[in-house]
Predict the structure.
Amino acid sequence: AMPPRRPLPSAVPAFIVGEGTIMNATFADQAGVVLLELDKSIQILDVQTGDTIYRESKGSGFPHAGVLSPNGRLFLTGSEGKVKICESESGAVLVELPWTRMMDFHWLDARRALYSPYQNESKGKVFLLDFASGKETPLPWLHGPVEKVMPVSDSKGQFVVATQRALSRVELSGDEAGL
């Protein structure tokens, strides 16, 4: 996978300052990056320096900001029944997932994620997105919505996936290229 957008800080900063009232804050798991949802904008910051990586003002119909990818290179926004996956430095939209809510999207690692649409012909289906290959693969043995995804400790590429109907152990294979 690609390296983190910024390294993890060597020391925890005393505070993080946004350009407005902080409504929500989301940290990347493996990078020194935080996404702030503010009253009038979203802002992505380098945790160590406090420098702004990306900023976008809220306009009418502005989406809610969501979760950063583990390496801090991508982030989610969501509104009007769709999720957009954006690049964290430019804000460029890489993928749009119609009929999907942010709560139905789960990062597995820095290059792969699961999501489950809540309406249309894909309702109840679960898909694997691989950002390295650009492939979207249906996982017919899982029936959404996906509630939670947890890595299996000491088992690379293995996850427990909780849906409304079952707990499933999923093992993903493949090379480590990607985001």
Notes: The chain has a mean pLDDT of 87. DSSP finds no helices and 15 strands in the chain. The radius of gyration is 16 Å.
